[in-house]
Design goal:
Layout (H helix, E strand, L loop, with lengths): L4 E5 L9 H18 L3 E4 L13 H10 L5 E8 L5 H14 L4 E6 L6 H7 L6 H15 L22 E5 L2 H10 L3 E3 L8 H11 L14 E9 L3 H20 L11 H5 L11 E4 L1 H15 L3 E5 L5 H15 L1
Parallel strand pairs: 1-2, 1-9, 2-3, 3-4, 4-5, 5-6, 6-7, 7-8, 7-9
Helix pairs in contact: 1-11, 3-5, 6-7, 10-11
């Protein structure tokens, strides 16, 4: 069996379209991913970003669950400092009750936005110890008793759902937390590759089953990778300029929606290619399969979380179909 492939969706909004249209497109992609055999589909949490409509992850998950049957659905992730932990437990416990245990809860410490917006959202601490305590409480609310460890008199509707919790991170700090808590680790190498190898090593070294939060018996790593599959390597390289322009806009402070693809040579000029996107599998089916296998050989990942941006929804759908054919 090949290593499972999953999908991270940020619900990108293309130039000339609306958030409503972007959400509709993402739900169509969810139904397609379900049919194609992807393991899970996660929605990321971002705020104050005009080119992304993924801000209310629980709502997106609920809508995606309604149009799918098999695929696991979750958050990649809930940025816990933006939320009251009890509210997160209630939302994701409700999702699990509604949708037959197909729900994952990925948790991160980053705000998923700028400082001003983060201050407006902040509901809990991002400090490592507080983050770990909040995870411990969340597991309590998902347990059979429905009571957290720090506030045992509270009982949540999430009782007995046992929603799987993942720790998201891009550095050795997040990796260490995941390992010490005995939880699966999703590493954000698709946009933060610098500490990839160290983070995976630290996670595996720190992993323990002795923590009261431990929910797996051995380390489990899911690594993010940018993917664009097309009929030819040249076509894929051109389509990948969509995400390259997006990251260039971030660097330049431009607040634009997702732009159409351009000639890759225009991005080569002046060294405008972004090293943040160097973890990638871009090309035709054979090229992408080889690149994915190389990445697996490097990381030993147990699962890959693919990230695909496209200006044209048909291009993204084609990429998912070609990827599934090549891999499964």
């Amino acid at each position: 069996m090949p290593v499972p492939l999953s999908i991270l969706d940020l619900v990108p909004i293309s130039e000339g379209t609306t958030a409503r249209e972007a959400i509709a497109t993402s739900l169509e992609s969810a139904a397609l991913a379900d049919r194609l055999g992807f393991r899970r589909l996660w929605f990321a949490e971002h705020h104050n970003t005009p080119n992304l409509a993924a801000s209310a992850t629980a709502l997106l998950i609920s809508q995606a669950a309604a149009v799918t049957e098999r695929i696991r659905l979750g958050s990649g992730g809930v940025m816990l400092p933006n939320h009251a932990p009890l509210m997160v437990a209630e939302q994701y416990g409700t999702l699990a009750n509604l949708h037959g245990g197909r729900i994952d809860l990925g948790l991160g410490r980053a705000p998923g936005t700028d400082l001003m917006t983060a201050q407006a959202l902040a509901r809990s601490s991002a400090e490592p110890q507080a983050f770990a305590q909040n995870i411990y409480d969340l597991q309590g609310w998902f347990s059979a008793t429905g009571s957290s460890h720090s506030t045992p008199i509270l009982s949540a509707v999430s009782a007995g759902t046992d929603v799987p919790i993942w720790v998201l991170g891009s550095t050795v700090n997040g990796a260490s937390i995941a390992g010490q808590l005995g939880l699966p680790f999703a590493v954000a190498s698709h946009f933060a590759p610098d500490q990839l190898d160290d983070a995976i090593r630290v996670y595996r070294d720190a992993f323990t089953t002795d923590a009261p939060t431990a929910q797996i018996k051995k380390p489990y790593v899911m690594a993010g990778i940018n993917v664009m599959v097309a009929d030819t390597d040249e076509q894929a390289a051109r389509e990948f300029t969509v995400v390259e322009q997006m990251f260039l806009d971030l660097l330049l402070g431009q607040r634009r929606k997702i732009q159409p693809p351009v000639d890759p040579e225009t991005l080569d000029q002046g060294g405008r290619r972004n090293p943040m996107l160097r973890i990638r599998a871009v090309g035709g089916q054979e090229t992408v399969r080889a690149q994915l296998n190389d990445f697996l050989a490097r990381t030993g990942a147990d699962e890959l979380m693919t990230v695909t941006y496209a200006y044209d929804p048909a291009v993204r759908a084609r990429s998912l179909q070609l990827l599934a054919e090549a891999w499964f």
